[in-house]
fumarylacetoacetase
Amino acid sequence: MIKANNPQLKSWIPTKADSDFPIQNLPFGIFKNGDDHTGAASAIGDFVIDLKTLYDLGYFDGLSLPKEVFSKNTLNEFIGLGKETTRKVRERLSDLLEVSNTELQHNEAVRSSVFIPMDQVQMLLPVHIGDYTDFYSSEQHAYNVGCMFRDPDNALMPNWKHIPVGYHGRASSIAVSGTDFHRPKGQTIAPDAQAPAFGPTKRLDFELEMGFITGKANPLGASIPVAEADEYIFGFVLFNDWSARDVQKWEYVPLGPFLAKNFFSSVSPWIVTMDALEPFQVPGPVQDPQVLPYLELPDRKNFDVNLKVFIQPEGSEEKQVSHSNFKHMYWNVNQQLAHHTANGCNINVGDLYASGTISGPTPEAYGSMLELAWMGTKPIPMPDGTERKFIHDGDTVIMRGYAEKDGVRIGFGEVRNKVLPTL
Amino acid sequence: MIKANNPQLKSWIPTKADSDFPIQNLPFGIFKNGDDHTGAASAIGDFVIDLKTLYDLGYFDGLSLPKEVFSKNTLNEFIGLGKETTRKVRERLSDLLEVSNTELQHNEAVRSSVFIPMDQVQMLLPVHIGDYTDFYSSEQHAYNVGCMFRDPDNALMPNWKHIPVGYHGRASSIAVSGTDFHRPKGQTIAPDAQAPAFGPTKRLDFELEMGFITGKANPLGASIPVAEADEYIFGFVLFNDWSARDVQKWEYVPLGPFLAKNFFSSVSPWIVTMDALEPFQVPGPVQDPQVLPYLELPDRKNFDVNLKVFIQPEGSEEKQVSHSNFKHMYWNVNQQLAHHTANGCNINVGDLYASGTISGPTPEAYGSMLELAWMGTKPIPMPDGTERKFIHDGDTVIMRGYAEKDGVRIGFGEVRNKVLPTL
């Protein structure tokens, strides 16, 4: 067991039972506290932990960290140090916070400068994203979409169970939780129309996804073996792959989604390390037909992470509309990364890979409005008496995620965005 | 007329009549001269012009350029200064090189440090590419592919004449001319097979494209009007969108090309400014049906740029296999950029946008082996007695481009890559 994951660990900083950030989590992010203080942080309970200040005070002495590594406005340099080093930082944080350790606990002056209440800071995008890839790895989602647009007997494409299907997305328009955006415009075509029209999308949707971020690069031409992919994956975030379904339908044949997706995507601010999720590994689904050898992972694993989606209409309360789980992936992250690089494609530190919509096997576990309201045929009632087929202006969509076991809850916080009217 | 484009200009540096780099061109690139000297350059005749040294010697005084702007290993900061400034630099270079100007001409000591023979330096990737988009804007190419995979009566998709179809590609695997690469592996399926196999692609192909690079960003949520797109486009390069056709065929439905493309793409090292190409604007094709208002450009323009592809088998001579032209684009670059941002997608300085394969109306003007050898049915003879349906190991593929008018030739140099055997 990774020492920092021990369920028995207690911190001298009190954390509530339902906190996303107990001592066993210790995720990494970038925070801004006022105009002139931006840097790397971890989290415990309701506090961010200012890593720059801890570094300056010498609490990381002996870990051979580069100067200023926590003073940047992204985590790229830090996570690029490699897992051996980032793991030591997480372990050191765990030690400092552990109830029997007095180094920080008994230093009141330092504590107030290192622990800052979360509600006083702004969280920023945690990494500079070089390239962003979106996979399509939930069988239920692919099946649902196939049923809608083709038929249940041929719902999955012939390649789907052989290839972790994916495509490249837009990195520039990925923003952090809390960023609002305007309803996008685009070309759409009415069912019986001869020509398309241009205007605000009428079918704005979310997609419930998880994303992983790589912390290690491979050179162009070299492939990452499926069993070694762990070494390249630093951690995970929640991901909302906002989509305009009517735009997508008209544009996506033959080269895939483009303007239907690239107007905006969003991530949760905290990167939960792959290490912290290690206790929540569960077996993946049986893969039949057998996958090709370069995708074979004897120790195949998924992660048991509860995922929930809420819609909050303007001026109303939030309502849970989905409860899915990351364990429902057909293709796991090792397979995704092995496939991505099987042709020699190079990856970089800070690249982001999203799972594709994660739909569970039952209707309440579907991961998009397209599926939850089944193409508009099953509208979802809201607390204010309205109903939703897709997302309205003024709606806030919130995704939350957490793993839970042995009394330990490893949470992701949330990714939250409000939809503003078209500009 | 832009002053630096005047066909009457002569330089005191002799340039051959067929040089790509007369005084009217003055492109920008990044060069490396030995281990410790990397920086921005322009070109004239057979020389690179060391802009860092010119700057340090005070030749750009009065242009208010930031310190060290020419000392970087990319042009991003320079082109991000905006067209007003980059235009002044090109004009200043034009003045310095003009035959009646004696500032540099009569300073032998300085001349030898500023002008370096091209064959002594290495050219690097000119920009850090944030996001890369590939369009699909040549009607003949889309028609040819449609004929092969569907039928001539329904060759173009219903959306093709309404949308400048495009998709996101991989930025990390774009390299500069001169970079060799290994034949990629991938999943393919034989015509009668039940399951796919994994191995080296048997259908490695080039795609003859042009790319443009943006020099100005727009904020997320804001669109670039079609008539203003010029302001955002700094210049052009040659682009080879290397493709594995057998991988592409198996993977691309429904989300588009992924591993069939992202193993490697290549660009020519010199960015020819949009300003330098201004004299070569020609009317675009008639667009019927009429495009939607956000794509209407009353002064629609293409660029008359000759494009040629050569194959050089290992140990043999090169053979020209294609002669196309950038003027054959159905959708122009203004329309591409207006469409790309119509939904509020943000672009950044240094982003790259490729045209898609540029196939002219006659078979010798097709821009890929898929089309030139028509799916392998019309093999192309090589100088060494072999023939080509697709690209073999050991082959070097070279693309060259130039515009020519009034005795002035504005060239792009070349993009050249050799295919090495699978690793």
Residues 3-124 of chain B form a domain with the SH3 type barrels. fold (CATH 2.30.30.230). The radius of gyration of chain B is 22 Å. Chain B touches chain A through 61 residues (CB under 8 Å). The mean pLDDT of chain B is 97.
